């Protein structure tokens, strides 16, 4: 900003021949000081003419609110999962007239103090498989009554001093297994990461339970070889992503080689959406009749690639729900809410065939 | 925030038995008022004990800076291109000690006034093929000396009242065509969108120029059928994405059917990275020897899928450069900078084989 370029209340006062406080009263919508309508109109006219802009920080200070929500995310947006969540958050916050500030790693006290110091109105924490709200942050949030929402932190059913949104991973597994059974699957190769996380345990338990109820379906586990160390490197380096993809390819090749499979009745089930692309590549190369399924969506488009099916997490919806809940949290009387969102099956079907047909027709005109 | 929960200067003053202004002076690092070291120490000790947090908005108001940069993006983060740019921006701004506020559509005056009203320190505008800085925004930025950086707005070589970062689409085409020639391509099917945008015209001119210098390579154009209307629907609706993918599939099928091709020497060249997945799917189904290339990266991983090659835009780097330039723009004496970033070839090669080998070895221990 070029110093001095910005008109001040004093500039208006000099032109109008009144005091600075009169200008201040005239421009304040909520002022109760009696000023003649003519004086108000003259002052406001001059303000418009010289391009006066009220100091937004001063207004926020007065209101004790910055209309900004801090989003705590320690994962890259280049992972589609987090981009979708932040997109939903951004849409939801915009609808509520709030701004989104993307925050990175930092001590819990820094972010809590930003709320206590009125720079942020609240915090939304985005968790993931191996990451949930740190104890120190929970303690500070509770102690200071900070408006707070935690997403995907495995909090459903637990008492927490804030609102929560979680995904129902167990229900996602059951629905997907029922669909695979309907499609004639008799053997499931379960691609399981070596990282043992909270969500991973839920999914594994659900897979075992679903197969327990379906004794005609056999289970084979293929460990994907991803440990916490490998995951960290994959997040930071595309070379490592390529290397990891090749590792998956060779592990799946070996498993299928050893068994002599029946592709028509075999599903390769990926616990992680990020593993689907490599697994699908091997399956297609060996036999296009293999089914590949993900307990979360991968980047391959269902409907374009045959025999590909996802249990898709409602990521954008979850972001929008967090935006709605943080507004509730900023009201001192509101109860905390706890949502559990079910995944949906995505096998590439057109969801709204009527709208779709209408749009195609419009194109062809 | 629970009303009254936050300790005030007055709470400290009462405990310390001094006036509120003495407390204020004692807590202000820059105060020149002489206070005894003991008084200062006592007051600061009490402030710590009762958990006093300075009002961040008041500090920002005093400094005339919010340390926050507004990012203007009218595209969804679920498009990988924009997620990568925002990731780079976020990393770059964090390194500079700045915050990132994600902004949506709104009148130009709203965002310029947010800077003039000290709520934002500057603006970064993310353009794309069919979208650049609107005239009204340019005019307001110039008039008020707003710190401003425009990314991917085709501004390189033009006089602008702000800093710019652009991609060298022409150089990307030439490098890719040289690589395709090296691989023995004799026929190029050019998948060209029906939307005619600025970047599209640059790419098309470069494709024609590159082929003009290589008379032994033949060119066939396949229009992808994407108009501005279709694009808008695809951005908003996954049904439309599936429909568009099928449209591409059938257009490529028809073109290849009609011609009787020589897969080993044929490349399907996608102007848009988003078209690569559908085109690759057809090519693989017809004959795995086809080469598929993108003038921007798609979601398929090179190195995992054979005969796939991208001219990859340095999206995260561009975001980081914008973060660096906006800091320059906030200094009143700085010149505007104009960067043109070249795309790089990505055929799935490991970029740092040494690091890669070291990490693999560490894993196996």
Describe the structure.
The structure is a homodimer of 365-residue chains. With 365 residues, chain A is α/β, with parallel strands linked by helices. The first copy, chain A, is 47% helix and 16% strand. Chain A has 14 helices and 12 strands. Chain A has helices at 9-16, 20-27, 37-49, 56-63, 80-95, 108-116, 135-144, 169-182, 198-212, 228-236, 238-259, 276-286, 315-329, 353-364; strands at residues 68-72, 99-103, 122-126, 148-151, 163-167, 187-192, 218-223, 266-270, 291-294, 308-312, 338-341, 344-346. In chain A, the strands form 2 sheets. In chain A, strands 2-1-3-4-5-11 form a 6-stranded parallel sheet, sandwiched between helices. The first copy, chain A, has a 6-stranded mixed sheet with strand order 7-6-8-9-10-12, with helices on both faces. In chain A, helix 12 links the parallel strand 8 (266-270) and strand 9. In chain A, helix 5 (80-95) crosses helix 13 (315-329) and helix 8 packs parallel to helix 9 (198-212). The first copy, chain A, is elongated. The relative contact order of chain A is 0.12.
Global mean pLDDT of chain A? 88
Shape verdict of chain A: elongated
Strand content of chain A: 15-25%
For the biggest β-sheet of chain A, the strand order reads 2-1-3-4-5-11
